[in-house]
Structure formats: C-alpha cells, structure tokens
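Something for you to look into today, if you have time. Could you write out one complete protein record for me, on any chain you like? The space below this message is yours for that.
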Amino acid sequence: MIFDWDDLHETNHRLDLLGQLREANPAFRCTVFAVPGCGSDSFWESLPDWVERAVHGWVHPDPYECVNWTRQDMERLLDEPVIQKHFGCGFKAPGWQISDDCYQVLLERGWWVADQHLEDGRRPPMRVYFYEDGNWHGHIQNVCRNGIEETWGELVKAVEGAEDFRFCSEAARFYPDSDDSGAGTLPFGVPGLSRSPDVS
C-alpha cells in the first residue's frame, strides 16, 4: 500500500500524526510531496527516513504554480541546492497543473512524475506514479476533504490493516508500456483507497 500527502513544509507538516501512524504500524512508510522553498535545511534534515520527500513546486502559492513553467524554470528548480541535498528524484506539480516543458525536463533528467491518467494523452513516455491505481492520496492540512486529520479514522484503519508499504518512487513505472491497457485503474471514491480528486 502506498500513502502519499501533498503540501508538507516547515510550518505545515503534521509529523505528530504521521508519527502516530508509525506507532499504529511500525512498518508504515509514506511519501510527501513537499514544498522545498518553504523549509530550512535543518527542517528537511529532521525528517525520518520512513518519510520519502518528493518535490511539489517551489513555494506553491496556488494550484497553478507550474502550469506555465518554461524549460528554464524547471531546470532552475531541479538545480536548487535544497532539492539536490534533501529530495529524491520525484515531482508532482501543485494542483496537478504541469507544463509540457516540465515533463520534458523531468524526462531528460531521469525523474519520475506523480500524475493523473487524464494526462496520458500529452505526457511523454516516462516513469509515472499514479495515485489513482489503488493508493491513498491526501493533504497534510485539511483541504479537498482528504487532509490527514479529517480522514483520520479511515486512515488509521487503512494503516493498521496494511501488510506492505512502499514509497511512490518504488511504484513509479514506465508508462505507457507495451501491455498497458488501463485495466486495474480504480474509480474515485473507493473507501480506503483512491481519495477524492483535488486541485492543490
């Protein structure tokens, strides 16, 4: 099972609740799509190794931060020292709103992208993580009806009942591949699995 959350940064992290999930199931691991421009080196260094950090924009002022980014914007982001030092090679655009240039730079640099199937027609063939394929996606804060606190009861049950945990990077796969038919994609609203779609 894969658990991921958006928007983690130094003043929005809920590490207290993530820690309680780890106590509920000591095998618990998760991926956070974190905002690198909103955290200090000491904060990023303090995150436990069972929390994978992937890049979620730069300062995420709104859900459209990356929608018009040029190649130069994306290259500058990936070259930021804080990202080089503290983040893995995964990216999710705020609000899922991503430019074609962002895709291209990620592909050229060998990064994976968290994306939705609705972009399958325009995304180049590359490594992709789809939360829609039976995983838990939400937000650190209460927003879009999928924040950690507002889904707490259901979330704890899902973590307690999970036998295996993976990071998003471990599930990112080359897409499309030769035997990809789209089968196995779960609809929105499956309890304990795919969370409601969001735009942040």
